[in-house]
């Protein structure tokens, strides 16, 4: 006598078959990505690949280099495509490349300990934290810094990282190193923003050069560069009301 399949099992059966059929495809995509990462070359020279991952487009892979640059490649590495990949979703175009950049920024910043930042927070536990790449010679950085007390009052902590726009040989880089070498970094940052002289020497072991390099790798091109908690980068000065709205804190 043939046993009847339970109704629940019947409803799951197509999905089980589909899942089983997808497993080889995922494994194949992983194998291709691994081969690309190991063998990708230009002019016979291996490329400094950091990661290769599959995309929603069949046969197209996202390649990220150690420099932070990224592009797309076909399975054998014979053709490249530079630009952003969009999903044509029901609610409009979704920039998948920018979503990936946001995730990478968020992960990179999460790895920086608070001890290597200049932190401004209010008395209460912050509702949100933004990371800002800053330069003391930047007028819009000064303008943003003037709003920090208001942002703190509204529950937004501001964590500064160094980004001397003119490079590590600039006066701004020296000032930022003085800030990081100060016993009271927040007070030294206040002094730097106001153009005052900072007493500390720029001779301690400090992360300014590393943070500048990180900013370049993350796509920072000017200051201030505000990074939201989800990794989204907002270039330039943003008024407190707009930043509050972007963080979804209007009703809190």
Poorly predicted runs? 1-23
Estimated structural class:
alpha+beta
What letter string, H or E per element, gives the SSE order?
A: HEEEEEEEEHEEHHEHHHEEH
Mean pLDDT: 88
Counting DSSP E segments of at least 2 residues, the number of strands comes to: 13
Could you say how many structural domains there are in total? Answer: 2
Alpha-carbon distance between the two ends = 65 Å
Count of helical stretches? 8
CATH topology term of the largest domain = Glutaredoxin
Helix content: 25-40%
What is the CATH C-level name of the largest domain? Alpha Beta
Would you kindly provide a brief summary of this structure?
Required for disulfide bond formation in some periplasmic proteins. Acts by transferring its disulfide bond to other proteins and is reduced in the process. The protein is an alpha+beta fold and 252 residues long. The chain has two domains: 7-83, Roll (Nuclear Transport Factor 2, Chain: A), CATH 3.10.450; 108-246, Glutaredoxin (3-Layer(aba) Sandwich).
């Amino acid at each position: 006598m043939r046993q009847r399949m339970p109704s629940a099992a019947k409803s799951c059966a197509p999905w089980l078959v589909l899942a089983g059929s997808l497993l080889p495809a995922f494994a194949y995509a992983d194998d291709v990505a691994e081969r690309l990462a190991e063998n990708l070359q230009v002019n016979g020279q291996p490329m400094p690949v950091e990661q290769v991952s599959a995309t929603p487009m069949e046969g197209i892979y996202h390649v990220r280099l150690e420099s932070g640059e990224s592009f797309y490649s076909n399975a054998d590495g014979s053709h490249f495509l530079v630009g952003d990949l969009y999903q044509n979703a029901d609610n409009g175009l979704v920039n998948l490349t920018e979503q990936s950049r946001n995730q990478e920024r968020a992960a990179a910043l999460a790895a920086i300990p608070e001890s290597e930042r200049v932190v401004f927070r209010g008395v209460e536990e912050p509702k949100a934290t933004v990371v800002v790449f800053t330069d003391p010679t930047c007028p819009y950085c000064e303008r943003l810094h003037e709003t920090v007390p208001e942002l703190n009052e509204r529950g937004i902590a501001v964590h500064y990282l160094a980004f001397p726009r003119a490079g590590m040989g600039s006066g701004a880089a020296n000032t930022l190193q003085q800030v990081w070498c100060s016993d009271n970094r927040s007070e030294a940052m206040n002094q730097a923003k106001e153009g005052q002289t900072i007493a500390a020497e720029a001779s301690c072991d400090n992360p300014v050069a590393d943070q500048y390099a990180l900013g370049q790798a993350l796509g920072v091109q000017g200051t201030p560069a505000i990074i939201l908690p989800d990794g989204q980068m907002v270039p330039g000065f943003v008024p407190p009301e707009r930043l509050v709205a972007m963080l979804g804190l209007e009703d809190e």
